[in-house]
Specification:
It is globular and about 60 Å long. The chain has helices at 10-26, 51-60, 78-85, 97-111, 116-127, 157-163, 187-192, 208-213, 217-223, 244-250, 257-264, 283-291, 306-319, and strands spanning 2-7, 31-36, 42-44, 47-49, 134-138, 145-150, 153-156, 172-176, 196-199, 228-231, 234-235, 238-239, 275-279, 295-299. The strands form 4 sheets. A 7-stranded parallel β-sheet has the order 5-2-1-9-10-13-14, with helices on both faces. Strands 7-6-8 form a 3-stranded antiparallel β-sheet. Strand 1 (2-7), helix 1 and strand 2 form a beta-alpha-beta unit. 39% of the residues lie in helices and 19% in strands. By secondary structure, the chain is an alpha/beta fold. It has a single domain, classed as Helicase, Ruva Protein, domain 3. The protein has 13 helices and 14 strands.
């Protein structure tokens, strides 16, 4: 089975880990392509940082800090502490020592002329993702950075997200470089040749939404013969983690399972989805969507651990 996942960071990584566990039992030999959001990428301390790519790589490679959901397990921060003593960097965005090694390797290869796709493949070799049947792709090799327009001007998304915890009113999200971006090699093929395309419970605005905004990606989703199904990132009117509700408010979408589904839209009416999985708290939303022709399902979608997440993945694939 060929499965393609369009993913942000923590939520998408944890879902994909559960998907792997499910397919290992139900469909051994399956191939999974994960297309990652790179809109959160940035330069910091002279190195290229790719938060969502790294969270996916560490999680699927078994090295993630489980309590945080991002970064490396058994991390230290001596380099960042010493940089702070020089007055360099952001005290609200700390690069761990082990994590810094990843960024240094990526930056060296990028400066040697490798593309982000090639660099990502090299990094993933260490974590043996291919042994699990996983290929991790950036959405684009061209730099795309999400910025947020606040009252005082534009700031990088990570500053709005991490430093201000989305407390500053966001007027709009601006994807710098998006107009010049192209899908990375293999992205369109992974969508067009898949048996199923899955949208995990990643942020629908600044994660999955950014991937969909890369020229050509949305068209690929609307034309692929594969069913396209997704999981609501909203449970009972609230995001499980992160500030998805604040992001949705910025674009005028309510923080509800039904509203997010309608934001993505049904393929039969010009959107990108064929099916939508919601939490038991939102069963009424599933009924309303089903009445409008959507294929829906309801289950406990809170990803507590890998076995439970594997069951969530199984339910989502049943929609296929």
């Amino acid at each position: 089975m060929k499965v393609t996942v369009l993913s942000g960071g923590v939520g998408g990584a944890r879902f994909t880990r559960g998907l792997l566990a499910h397919l290992a039992e139900s469909a051994p030999g399956s191939q999974i392509t994960v297309i990652a959001n790179t809109g959160d990428d940035m330069w910091l301390h002279g190195v290229r940082v790719c938060p969502d790519l790294d969270t996916l790589m560490y999680t699927l490679g078994g090295a993630v800090h489980e309590q945080q959901g991002w970064g490396r397990r058994e991390e230290s921060s001596r380099v960042s502490q010493d940089l702070a003593a020089y007055g360099v960097g952001w005290d609200w965005f700390t690069l761990g020592d082990l994590d810094l090694a990843t960024h240094l390797a990526r930056t060296q290869w990028l400066r040697e002329g490798l593309s982000l796709t090639e660099t990502t493949a090299r990094l993933c070799e260490r974590w043996r993702l291919a042994d699990q049947g996983v290929r991790l792709l950036p959405m684009s090799d061209q730099p795309v950075e999400t910025h947020v327009r606040v009252d005082d001007g534009l700031i990088h998304f990570e500053e709005w997200w991490v430093r201000h915890r989305a407390a500053l009113p966001a007027r709009e999200f601006v994807q710098v470089g998006l107009a010049q971006a192209e899908p990375a090699p293999g992205v369109l093929e992974a969508i067009g040749e898949a048996d199923a395309v899955l949208l995990p419970p990643s942020n629908p605005v600044v994660s999955v939404g950014t991937i969909l905004a890369v020229p050509g990606v949305r068209d690929a989703l609307t034309t692929t013969p594969a069913p396209v199904v997704g999981i609501s990132p909203i449970i009972g009117g609230a995001a499980v983690r992160g500030m998805a509700a604040e992001c949705l408010a910025t674009i005028g979408v309510a923080a509800s399972a039904e509203a997010v589904a309608r934001h993505y839209g049904r393929r039969a009416t010009g959107g990108v989805l064929d099916g939508w999985l919601v939490d038991t708290a939102d069963a009424e939303a599933a009924e309303k969507l089903a009445a409008d022709g959507w294929r829906t399902a309801v289950t406990d979608t809170l990803m507590r651990d890998v076995p439970h997440t594997a069951r969530i993945a199984a339910t989502l694939l049943n929609l296929v």
